Amino acid sequence: MTDINFSSGKPAQMPRAEDGDPPAAVAHYELIELLFFAYRDFISEPDEILAGYGFGRAHHRVLHFVDRNPGLSVADLLDILKITKQSLARVLKQLVDQGYIEQRAGRRDRRQRLLHPTAQGTRLARKLASIQSQRISRALEHMDEAGRDAAAEFLTRLINDTERRQVLAIIRAADKSG
């Protein structure tokens, strides 16, 4: 991945709003770019580890949510990740074939496929989460409780209004089970 180098050592000036453009259209470039760079660094170490397994970010997301929600149905995972069945099928097949996830039939509906991490899958998911948790801890260590709450509120409000309640329910359910 190429780094962005600013010739002057400073980021370029924020573009001005064109006639008719709402001021908010350009008002948040700093936050947009901070999010891009934070995400890049947040996933960089897990990406390196996953590459050693022949896995990528899609594998990471699947493994994360299956580990946090053992017994998650394929349909629910598709809904969480907002990806197609075809995209999930390839990634899930690799994780199953290599022994990181098991698929089990549902108790009530044998056609339902429920996903469970294997011991190997749990170890990898927790290793990746531990690295990311350490990064978050370092970022929060100089913030007071109000600052941490504000960070959580900011991230929560970035989630679509129509899905925020569902996302928070998923997170809370995983916190209770794990």
Number of helices: 8
Mind summarizing the main beta sheet? 3 strands, antiparallel
- CATH architecture descriptor of the largest domain: Orthogonal Bundle
Categorize the overall geometry. Answer: globular
CATH topology of the largest domain: the name is: Arc Repressor Mutant, subunit A
Q: What is the CATH homologous superfamily assignment of the largest domain?
A: Winged helix-like DNA-binding domain superfamily/Winged helix DNA-binding domain
* Helix and strand element order: HHHEHHEEHHH
- Quick one: how many beta strands? 3
Which whole number gives the mean pLDDT? 88
Task: Quickly give the structural class.
Answer: mainly alpha
Tell me the β content. 5-15%
Poorly predicted ranges (pLDDT <50, ≥5 residues)? Answer: none
